[in-house]
């Protein structure tokens, strides 16, 4: 499983109460995956700046445009949507300077948006089933179950299929030769319009090779073919699975921005959005994103706003970083006027197939395609040849003896399949099977598991059994007389379904809201986990994928259905209809309604959205940061032809905390592994009126007072949420989601303090660690006010400082060493300022410091903003930031990024971090901590490449 820890950027958490410390800044830097293209920017130009000129010539009139040697990558010349250029300079250019130049409205770094993962592409056949006609797999499986989950089927039954609505997909291209996608391209075809901005070979770092044809046939480019199918596929008779998309009569426009591998730069995405508008799109569907919960660095905001005001709806995936907990959402999804979409797991595994044993008893296995090529094979359990009873611990693959015994058994893998088991404590440890020549694995499970395998087309093929079929197979194997082999014939070629125990719950991978400004995200959810859809013909024609990439096109298709019936509604009105008619779902295996931060308004209900005859406004409340949020107003309008009575109810959602190590009652539990913490701490709500009676055309406004429960742990980043549910007497249900943070963020500074962080050490602080043992749990507590540290090439004898500081919600921080007698008054002292110390001043030049504070140099600086090449500031968008940084090499950097060794003597550490919404140039907007004296013993002959040269 791919895992993206937010919290582990600067420190690796390794089990309870120990923290491995990062040792130097260069190492931190290399850990970052730089997505920023150096010296390359998107520049939005002022509309009244040389209006007679084209964008390129206008840019040349700006001050940065007067520099030599830049080239234009894209010109955006639509004054209605976006006017500007993307440019690449040969020499360093500062983004802040660019932003403030005359003629420039705004500017952003060009960044690479990573390629959306093909998550859970199980069992693409390792042979080519290509050709113009696909096999007929139609069986008893209800492959279109997601259409029922989103209540789309009832609209199809009425003939509402999205006719006349144009959906633009900005993705990896489409294999429109697929029979379910119309078989061709151009006017009159399902894929009627489009453009290839990049070409097959583009990977986000090389030059794109655009052309007019968005065809993508490579398997790795199959993402766009899958999302296109979700919107509008229609399998022909006697081919495929009988799949139908959400809006099979909608017109598709395909804008290809990803090649066959790698990412795409955001300047190309903006060009594609503008092109989609020019081509007449009603809906722009973007199953892609870059994890950026900070609104201020979102380059898509203006474009999305403009498209919206011109009637073009932008729908985007919220992202696949759910394991990181709240604040893990992506751009462009968080753009204020976009509809961001989370993912709900499918109720069924749509593609299971039947194998029969010699008594004709069935076993159903899960795979995209039937494994008929196996024919009749004998089932051998991992552990065969070991002289012990076979248990799940042996079949798990984590027992090497079992593999050794199997190797000695000399089996013929052409006629044998290996049964292994998938145990949560062991994982998929079946690597040794490859060396043994095993062709296929039959994977059983001992508990209900989420069946999602990351590696596509893996060898050997893994055929999964759900829990019921696992029990069946294992009991039959156990009953098999000694010496007699149990065989299965893989003869079934018609799809059957097996139930998905994770069905209808939010997917674990689906990113959480809110944004940093606490705007409610995602807005809505849709089926996105375990979704069968079209795939390039040469790669089998179909794939089962999981991701918010799959849920966004489901919403785009639903929106097409709604728009086809309500062509005059504005984009915000359409979105509000979808949100107020969505159905909130519960957490997995829980009676608690899932947090709005996870599901938004709930799972989409397309039929309810189309047939709604009550309008609820607004469709959501972002209550921001307060222990007692202001009262809100909800207006209910009865737009039906009959009198209706409505009742209001409050439905709380689960409460989340992003981290649990700041809670006084869990002092020694330092863990970010199982985040977020899901808690039952419900908010309450009062209504000015909870029953209303409205005649046709009447409306009423009701005051709602929501009250969160107080949370004593603001540093744990709590988020509360819930729904105002409005039920009409004809049983129509509506709801309005709300979300907030139950404390005042202005009052809670960014530096975590007065709470236990890692037992027994508090943040902020300096610890003393042996240079060869950088586990925090092993570090020493320095004496107050003054402690000595020493460096030596015998690392065992070196005792060095470790800076231990946690922060929340800061977009800029600086850690530097300053003169011991500095007169700066910090927000917090890490020593007793009344204690007199005879300082030993180092023979070390004092530099003019940041905001006037003298300094010896920088240990670490971080900003959420991309930085120019050579800057000592690291880009980081971490939210819950755990810093454990050891000064293994006694060197600092200046503001130009030059590194230098420091001399022996007394230093203090000064940590400054910008308060939430603070201004970087205002000293009052920082929270700061000044540490105790550190007396450094640094031998003058310490080698320049220390610690690499140490013994
Ligand atoms: C914008 O640029 C494109 C491509 O160069 C050109 O076809 C189009 O006419 C231009 N539009 C305007 C409004 O200048
Ligand atoms: C960084 O991103 C690129 C492009 O998405 C990817 O190929 C590479 O593996 C990533 N590197 C790391 C260290 O994550
Ligand atoms: C199986 O392995 C797990 C993890 O190593 C262990 O906790 C458990 O006790 C083992 N069970 C048996 C029956 O050996
Ligand atoms: C297994 O099948 C392959 C390909 O058909 C063949 O080359 C090989 O000899 C077979 N192995 C055995 C042990 O029968
Ligand atoms: C939060 O606290 C600040 C400073 O005390 C105050 O100005 C602001 O109004 C408070 N915000 C809310 C929503 O209560």
UniProtKB/TrEMBL annotation:
The active site is at residues 171, 223, 549. One of its GO terms (molecular function) is serine-type endopeptidase activity. Keywords: Hydrolase, Protease, Serine protease, Signal. Residues 622-739 form the C5a peptidase/Subtilisin-like protease SBT2-like Fn3-like domain. It holds the Pfam family fn3_5. GO terms for biological process: proteolysis. Residues 1-18 form the signal peptide. GO terms for cellular component: membrane. Residues 162-588 form the Peptidase S8/S53 domain. The keyword Kinase does not apply. PANTHER family: PEPTIDASE S8, SERIN ENDOPEPTIDASE. Belongs to the peptidase S8 family. This is Tripeptidyl peptidase II. It comes from Trichoderma parareesei. The lineage of its organism: Eukaryota, Fungi, Dikarya, Ascomycota, Pezizomycotina.
């Amino acid at each position: 499983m791919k895992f993206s820890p937010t919290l582990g950027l600067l420190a690796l958490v390794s089990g309870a109460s120990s923290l491995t410390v990062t040792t130097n800044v260069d190492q931190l830097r290399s850990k970052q995956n730089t997505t920023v293209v150096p010296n390359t920017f998107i520049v939005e130009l002022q509309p009244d700046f040389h209006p007679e000129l084209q964008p390129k010539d206008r840019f040349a009139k700006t001050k940065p445009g007067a520099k030599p040697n830049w080239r234009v990558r894209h010109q955006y010349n639509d004054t209605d949507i976006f006017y500007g250029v993307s440019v690449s300079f040969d020499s360093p250019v500062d983004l802040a300077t660019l932003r403030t130049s005359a003629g420039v409205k705004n500017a952003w770094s060009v960044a690479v948006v990573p390629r959306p993962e093909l998550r859970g592409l199980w069992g693409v056949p390792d042979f080519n089933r290509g050709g113009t006609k696909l096999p007929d797999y139609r069986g008893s499986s209800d492959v279109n179950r997601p259409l029922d989950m989103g209540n789309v089927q009832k609209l199809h039954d009425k003939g509402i299929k999205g006719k006349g609505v144009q959906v633009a997909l900005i993705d990896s291209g489409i294999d429109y030769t697929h029979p379910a996608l119309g078989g061709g391209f151009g006017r009159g075809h399902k894929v009627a319009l489009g453009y290839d901005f990049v070409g097959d070979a583009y990977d986000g770092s090389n030059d794109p090779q655009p052309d007019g044809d968005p065809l993508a046939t490579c398997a790795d480019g199959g993402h766009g073919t899958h999302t296109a199918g979700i919107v509008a596929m229609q399998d022909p008779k006697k081919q495929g699975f009988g799949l139908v998309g959400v809006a099979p009569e909608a017109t598709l426009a395909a804008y290809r921005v990803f090649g066959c591998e790698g990412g795409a730069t955001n300047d190309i995405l903006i060009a594609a959005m503008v092109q989609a508008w020019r081509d007449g799109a009603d809906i722009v569907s973007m199953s892609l994103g870059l994890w950026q919960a900070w609104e201020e660095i979102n380059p898509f905001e203006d474009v999305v706003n403009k498209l919206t005001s011109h009637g073009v709806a932008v729908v985007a995936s919220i992202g696949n970083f759910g394991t990181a907990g709240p604040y893990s959402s992506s751009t462009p999804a968080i753009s204020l006027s976009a509809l961001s979409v989370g993912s709900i797991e499918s109720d069924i595994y749509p593609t299971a197939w039947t194998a029969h044993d010699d008594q004709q008893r069935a076993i159903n296995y899960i795979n995209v395609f039937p494994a008929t090529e196996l024919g009749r094979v004998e089932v051998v359990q991992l552990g065969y040849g070991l002289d012990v009873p076979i248990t799940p611990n042996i079949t798990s693959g984590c027992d090497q003896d079992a593999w050794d015994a199997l190797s000695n058994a000399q089996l013929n893998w052409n006629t044998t399949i290996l049964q292994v088991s998938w145990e949560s404590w062991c994982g998929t440890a079946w690597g040794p099977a490859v060396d043994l020549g095993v062709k296929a694995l039959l994977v059983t499970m001992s508990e209900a598991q989420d069946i999602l395998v990351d590696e596509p087309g893996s060898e050997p093929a893994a055929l999964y059994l759900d829990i019921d079929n696992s029990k069946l197979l294992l009991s039959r194997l156990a009953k098999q007389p000694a010496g007699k082999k149990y065989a299965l014939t893989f003869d079934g070629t018609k799809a059957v379904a097996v139930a998905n125990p994770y069905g209808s719950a939010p997917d674990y991978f689906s990113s959480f809201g809110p944004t940093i400004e606490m705007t409610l995200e995602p807005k809505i959810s849709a089926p996105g986990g375990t979704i069968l859809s079209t795939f390039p013909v040469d790669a089998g024609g179909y794939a089962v994928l999981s991701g918010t990439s799959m849920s966004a096109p489901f919403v785009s298709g639903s929106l097409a259905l709604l728009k086809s019936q309500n062509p005059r509604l504005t984009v915000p009105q359409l979105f509000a209809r979808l949100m107020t008619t969505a159905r909130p779902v519960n957490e997995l295996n829980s009676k608690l309604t899932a947090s709005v931060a996870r599901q938004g308004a709930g799972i989409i209900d397309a039929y309810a959205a189309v047939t709604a005859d009550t309008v609820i406004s607004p469709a959501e409340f972002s209550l921001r940061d307060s222990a007692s949020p202001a009262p809100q107003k909800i207006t209910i309008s009865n737009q039906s032809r009959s009198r209706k009575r409505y009742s209001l109810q409050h439905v709380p959602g689960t409460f989340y905390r992003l981290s649990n190590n700041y809670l006084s009652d869990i002092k020694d539990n330092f863990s970010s592994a199982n985040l977020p913490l899901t808690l039952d701490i419900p908010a309450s709500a009062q209504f000015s009126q909870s029953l209303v009676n409205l005649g046709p055309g009447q409306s009423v406004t009701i005051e709602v007072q929501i009250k969160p429960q107080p949370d004593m742990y603001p540093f744990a980043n709590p988020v509360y949420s819930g729904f105002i549910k409005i039920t009409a007497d004809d049983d129509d249900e509506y709801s309005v989601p709300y979300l907030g943070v139950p404390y005042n963020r202005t009052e809670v500074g960014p530096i975590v303090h007065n709470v236990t962080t890692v037992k027994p050490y508090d943040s902020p602080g300096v610890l003393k660690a042996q240079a060869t043992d950088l586990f925090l749990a092993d570090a020493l507590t320095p004496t107050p006010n003054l402690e000595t540290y020493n460096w030596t090439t015998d690392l065992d004898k070196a005792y060095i400082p470790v800076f231990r500081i946690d922060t929340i919600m800061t977009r800029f921080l600086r850690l530097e060493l300053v003169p011991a007698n500095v007169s700066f008054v910090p927000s917090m002292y890490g020593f007793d300022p009344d204690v007199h110390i005879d300082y030993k001043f180092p023979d070390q030049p004092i530099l003019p410091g940041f905001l006037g504070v003298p300094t010896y140099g920088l240990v670490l600086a971080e900003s959420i903003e991309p930085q120019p090449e050579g800057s000592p500031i690291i880009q980081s968008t971490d939210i819950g930031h755990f810093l454990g940084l050891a000064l293994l090499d006694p060197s600092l950097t200046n503001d130009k990024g030059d590194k230098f060794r420091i001399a022996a003597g007394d230093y203090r550490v000064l940590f400054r971090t910008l308060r939430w919404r603070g201004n970087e140039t205002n000293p009052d907007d920082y929270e700061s901590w000044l540490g105790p004296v550190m007396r450094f013993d640094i031998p003058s002959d310490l080698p320049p490449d220390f610690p690499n040269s140490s013994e």
